[in-house]
Design a protein that fits this description.
The protein is an alpha+beta fold and 198 residues long. Helix content is 57%, strand content 7%. It is built from 8 helices and 4 strands. Helix 4 packs antiparallel against helix 5. The structure holds glutathione.
C-alpha cells in the first residue's frame, strides 16, 4: 500500500501513526498539493493528503476513511471500536479533533495563499473561534486513560499539530488534555517517531 503524504500534515501523521500501531507497513511518497501535474489529483480528486492507494489500485481518502480501512485490513475492531456506543464516541472525538485541525489548516493557508495586506481578520477570527471552542469541548470529552482508537489517535495528532504550528498555549488552561497527551505519548512510542520535522 502506498501513502501519499506531506511531511508536516497532521492528517498524514494520523494515518502513519495508525498504520504503525496496527503494524501495517506502508510505502510512502511525498505529494505536492500545489503541483497541478502531481498524480495526487487523479488519485484523489480533492488533491489532498493523506491519500492511500491499495495494492489493487483503489484510492482511499480522507484520513477517517483510511483509518477505517486500515482497521479492516488488521482484522477489524483494533482501532475502530466494535461496540456501537464506543464506536460513536470515538467517531465524535475523531470528528472534533479533525475539525480542530481543519480550522488550524485554514488559518495557516491564509498566510500561504494571501499576502499579509489581504488577510481577512473576520475569517481568521471565525476559524480561531472554532479552534478555541473545539479545544474547550475536547477538555471535557477527553477519555481517561490512553486507549488507542481512531478518536484518541486523532486527538493526539491534533494536539501535536497545535504544539508544532501554534505554540503550546493550549496547555495552560487544559490540564486534562495535557495529561492525555502525556499518557498517550508514554504508551505509544510511535507517536514521537511520527512527529513532524520543521
Ligand atoms: N479531511 C481531510 C483533510 C486533509 C487536509 O486538509 N490535508 C491538507 C494538508 S494538512 C491538504 O492536503 N491540503 C491541500 C489542499 O487543500 O489543497 C482528512 O481528514 O484527510
Amino acid at each position: 500500500m502506498l501513502l501519499r503524504l506531506s511531511p508536516t500534515s497532521p492528517f498524514a501523521r494520523k494515518v502513519s501513526l495508525a498504520a504503525a500501531i496496527l503494524d501495517i507497513p506502508l510505502e510512502t511518497r511525498m505529494a505536492d498539493t500545489a503541483d497541478t501535474s502531481d498524480s495526487l489529483r487523479t488519485e484523489n480528486p480533492l488533491g489532498k493528503v493523506p491519500t492511500l492507494i491499495t495494492d489493487d489500485g483503489e484510492s482511499y481518502y480522507d484520513s477517517r476513511v483510511i483509518l477505517a480501512y486500515l482497521d479492516h485490513v488488521a482484522g477489524g475492531g483494533r482501532i475502530v471500536p466494535s461496540d456501537p456506543k464506543a464506536r460513536l464516541d470515538a467517531m465524535r472525538l475523531e470528528a472534533l479533533a479533525d475539525g480542530l485541525m481543519d480550522a488550524g489548516v485554514l488559518v495557516l493557508y491564509e498566510s500561504r495563499f494571501r499576502p499579509e495586506e489581504k488577510h481577512e481578520p473576520r475569517w481568521l477570527e471565525h476559524q480561531k473561534g472554532k479552534m478555541a471552542r473545539a479545544i474547550a469541548a475536547l477538555e471535557k470529552l477527553v477519555p481517561a486513560g490512553a486507549e488507542m482508537n481512531n478518536g484518541t489517535i486523532t486527538l493526539a495528532c491534533a494536539l501535536g499539530f497545535l504544539d508544532f504550528r501554534f505554540g503550546g498555549d493550549w496547555r495552560k488552561a487544559h490540564p486534562r488534555l495535557v495529561a492525555f497527551q502525556d499518557a498517550f505519548s508514554a504508551a505509544c512510542p510511535r507517536f514521537e517517531e511520527t512527529k513532524p520535522k520543521a
